[in-house]
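The aim of this short unit is practical: by the end, you should be able to scan a pair of folded records and say something sensible about each. We start with the first protein, listed as its amino acid sequence and then its structure tokens.
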Amino acid sequence: MADTPTDPTAAPAPQDPQDPSEPVSPPGSPAGELTLRPLGIEHLAAVLDLGHRVYDTEAMPYTGWSLSAVAGHLDAPDPACLVLLDGDRVAGFVLGSLSFEQRADWGYLEWIAVDPDYQGRGAASRLVRECCALLAGAGAVCVVTDVERRNTASAELMRRNGFAEEASVSLFVRPLTDASEAGTGRARGGPGPRRHLTRAAAERVR
């Protein structure tokens, strides 16, 4: 549910794109005119590209965005993975799976993103609802997602779609070497992840 240097969502004042008060970009179609389809092999390149544009792939440990991360869902039993299409263009996607941690009856809304051209049209909420419906149909008794605490827009999206906070977990990190000298990870004192929704989604919810 994991902003890159070229992330088009890295705006100075993030707003919830589902908020009708937010300016809407002229390109694209309303969410109701977009077509939902199951994620297929033919969508992998576009989904991977959109993910690279909206996820901070250096924001560990919540990111792990890769071709294998996407393609693995195609082989998963009872996947709840959808793309939202404007013609042949992937306007958004959601990747969900049945099972969370040790609970086989809990669904996991793992990744979700909407192209900036289609934000503000209800696309994110539509993807959330449809993913949850698929997981329910596969036997899930509830759906779990995770939102970084500073990501208030993503949190509000989830609340509007029936989610409620059930647990709060803080990630404690003990640096064992100077990341800037080691050449891996973020330098000590550097900025944290700018956004993540379900592993790593945007500060501006997709």
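Turning to the second protein, read its sequence before its tokens, just as you did above.
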Amino acid sequence: MKKLLKLVLGLIIAIVILIVAMVACTSFFANEVDKELKKGGEVTAVDSKQAKGDKQKNTPKHFVFGDTIKVGDVQLTISKAQNQSPAQYSESKNGNVVVFDVTAINKGDDSAFIDDTEFNLYINDEQVDSYFGDDMAISGDLNKGKTLKGKLFYDAPKGQSLELIYKPSFSWNDNEVVFKGKN
């Protein structure tokens, strides 16, 4: 009877130690995941006329066209707005197409997805329609250390105050970056 009691007591102690070890490991893992999620959504200025200094943390999420920023692991440059005539066989309601050159560089270890659907253009808080002409807009998977260049096209009149909002599709955070300027 004493042997059985010692065996049961030893088994209970072993189970308690196992439970404590599992809780400790789970807590450690959850903290590491939380750190990675916070790191991945950080927005920093790399080369910005709006923010003072290079690579500042906690910079405002409002930038001007031409700035280079880093959202998570992707370094992003949006050119100044350029006006161009619509394509011959693709009508424009406003008779003008606003074009942005986009350069994205993946500074992380995992691939990143960049697409024109992650960008929205606004004039006076009203969303501007995308323009679909002869050229293809930026879209693609961006592998580690690689660069993707492309364009964004919008059907908008000339001489407007523009607000271009970028919000990554595949992000754990609700980061949204705003670029402002005129065309």
